[in-house]
Amino acid sequence: MASADLNHRLNVSVAYSPCASEVDEVTLRLAPGATVADALRESGLQVRHPALAIDGLPVGIWGAFCDRGDRLRDRDRVELYRPLRVDPKDARRQRYRTQAKAKANQPR
Questions:
Q1: pLDDT, tens digit, for every residue of 34-91?
Q2: Which pLDDT belongs to residue 41?
Q3: pLDDT above 70 for 7
Q4: Alpha-carbon distances of 61 from 8, 16, 49, rounded to whole Å
Q5: What is the SS3 assignment for the chain?
Q6: Most-buried pick from 6, 10, 46, 50 (CB within 10 A)?
Q7: Rounded distance, CA 38 to CA 96, Å?
Q8: Does the model's pTM come out above 0.85?
Q9: What pLDDT, on the 0 to 100 scale, is given for residue 5?
């Protein structure tokens, strides 16, 4: 019966990006009925990132926000979201200004 239980386990990945262009992702095999909180706990993120306040960060499954008590399905990807340092709209405006200045300074 133990081997049958292993065949019915959920394959789940947990991903966190501590900074731009860096992703800490781990694949887990969890028991059926496991929750997002179970996946976060089993992922070891807190051990690898001790300064991370996991409980205070929003989470999602495949880019959609969810609750920590939500049950997982096979092949779900749990994502832990860090706060944005810059508002995306402000960043876009700044890029536009920089590109406009560079374009204006090009010789014709």
A1: 999 999 999 999 999 888 888 889 999 999 999 999 999 999 999 999 887 778 888 8
A2: 95
A3: no
A4: 20, 12, 21
A5: CHHHHHHCCEEEEEEEEEECCEEEEEEEEECCCCEHHHHHHHHCHHHHCCCCCHHHCCEEECCEEECCCCECCCCCEEEECCCCCCCHHHHHHHHHHHHHHHHHCCCC
A6: 10
A7: 43
A8: no
A9: 54
Residue 50 belongs to what domain range?
Answer: 2-104
The 64-66 sheet, strands edge to edge: 22-30, 10-19, 77-80, 59-61, 64-66
CATH of the domain at 22: 3.10.20.90
Q: How far apart are CA 16 and CA 37, in angstroms?
A: 14
Looking at the 3D structure of the chain, how many domains does it have?
Answer: 1
Cα–Cα distance measured from residue 55 to residue 43, given in angstroms and rounded to the nearest whole number? 14
Give the per-residue pLDDT at 1: 43
